[in-house]
Design brief:
The chain is of the alpha/beta class. 36% of the residues lie in helices and 19% in strands. The strands form 6 sheets. It has a 6-stranded antiparallel beta barrel. A 5-stranded parallel sheet has the order 2-1-3-4-5, with helices on both faces. It is globular and about 90 Å long. The relative contact order is 0.11. The structure holds L-Fuculose open form (CVU) and manganese (II) ion (MN). The site of L-Fuculose open form has 8 residues, from loops. It catalyses: L-fucose = L-fuculose. InterPro entries: Fuc/Ara_isomerase_C, Fuc_iso_dom3_sf, Fuc_isomerase_C, Fucose_iso_dom1_sf, Fucose_iso_N1, Fucose_isomerase, Fucose_isomerase_dom2_sf, Fucose_isomerase_N/cen_sf. Keywords: Carbohydrate metabolism, Cytoplasm, Fucose metabolism, Isomerase, Manganese, Metal-binding. Belongs to the L-fucose isomerase family.
Amino acid sequence: MSTPMIVNRLEGDMPKIGIRPVIDGRRGGIRESLEEPTMNLALACARFLSENLRHANGLPVECVVADTTIGGVREAASTAEKFRREGVGLTITVTPSWCYPLETIDTDPWMPKAIWGFNGTERPGAVYLAAALAAHNQKGLPTFSIYGRDVQDIGDDSIPEDVQAKLLNFAKAGLAVATIRGKSYLSMGTVSMGIAGCIVDEGFFQNYLGMRNEYVDMTEFIRRMERGIYDKEEYERALAWTKENCKEGEDINPPERRRTAEQKVEDWETVVKMALIARDLMVGNPKLAEMGYGEEAEGRNAIAAGFQGQRAWTDHLPTGDFMEAILSSSFDWNGIREPYMLATENDNLNAVSMLLGHQLTNGAQIFADVRTYWSPEAVERVTGKKLEGRAACGVIHLINSGPASLDGTGQQSLNGQPAMKPFWEISEEEVQKCLDAAAWCSAKDFFPSGGFSTDFTTRGGMPLTMARINLIHEIGPVLQIAEGYSVELPEDVHDVLDRRSDPTWPTTWFVPRLTGTGAFKDVYTVMNNWGSNHCAVSYGHVGPQLITLASMLRIPVNMHNVPEEDIFRPSVWSAFGANDVTGADYRACAAFGPLYK
Ligand SMILES: C[C@H](O)[C@@H](O)[C@@H](O)C(=O)CO
Ligand SMILES: [Mn+2]
């Protein structure tokens, strides 16, 4: 099996986690008695996080522990300076004792922060936690509170499971915030077919995500193709790999509209070049500098991108579906690697939804239209068959030509179940299964100038989370989340429904987990409340992690099916209405405003 390629393709080192051991500064016995247990707690926390977290690009997560315990403002300041030098992107303060809040807290407004107040009673760690949070709340520095449910003995540096869960949730979301900061979203083209999600709102990217916006016209693809501004050796390798692994499926076009065999050969050559060029535009390619194209070699430092495609490109040139699908997947002709976050139709709100999902799960994403709600009655009417099992209450048809990653076939497995795994856990055999489960069909009528779309059906039984960021007038960004499962329909049922849609595109039959109330009253209501034509789908039930991340970015969550006990936001959110969690989220996000404004 080839070793997965682990590279940081973007500028800057990966953010580290700063650990702040805070202590009662009284010397003459008290501080001395606490030095060891306090530092040991910090070291245990650092060890735990480094052992259990990885960056989405596969690099290990590093923790930086303060040089000394922090008993006063000078030690707090020198720790902040050390963290700045080391590239710390989020901080976790730990303490088993009482300390002096205003003299020791982390006051960096951009730094996601949490405090673990050890639940021990020999020294009042929880008292510091409460007082320090009060300080943060008064100073407008929302902070996550971690307090174990069961009392531990002083000196016990084990980390209880409930504390572990909150440390991981906070840390992974905080790493996402720090990782995307300063990176670009690259628009290749502009607004596609009047889709509002394609309007690039620079205020959203700058003020909420700390990201930059880059733009390139789609003619840049023509320039690079016609002038050969791509790595020729890699192109030959990519084309050969594609011919070997991307088998053509049924051409459902009527004979008079079918591309000739010669045209299809040309189309494959074009779409493979498009994939190389899109990647180079996103992250650069030193090979281009060797060819004398120094500026092109730089790329746009894009951690996410979108390709307009329709219709200015696709009415005249082969569709970008192959480019989008293969770059969004965890593998290509160079082997197994981190997937690119590349949205079709340049729907940048969906690209960000994919990006957040990828940063939290490390996995590839499925970009899809939220196309059709099929009620059991409608399915029975058109197929004569009853929906059963998890699908019995209806299904949502997720389908879009383009960047549904081939990981979305569900041909990777975790404990024998279908999964979309971090690329470094995917085997060569699983890569081949994903490739073999997809047919590359000649683009249909929507795309009059050729290209190939991916036809596959996601395996059933995968826990999935649908997400979408929408921009709302006078509110700004809101996030919606639906945890659920992929389901497999009997082939004869699938075929009838699929053929009514676009059978040359990738299908995921999705069933949200219902709560019986509100937007999750039934499957129909979930779809009826979806705020856009698109969604981004991650592997696993990651609603809690998305909710934590959204609160760090001050993006309210308008819809989710996450149990209230799993919601983890800064402690101050409860001050906006402890008995009205959703309303409190909106009020808190509005009060604190975007993280970078
Ligand atoms: C090919 C079609 O135009 C699709 O791109 C269209 O139905 C969409 O996906 C709209 O989001
Ligand atoms: Mn679409």
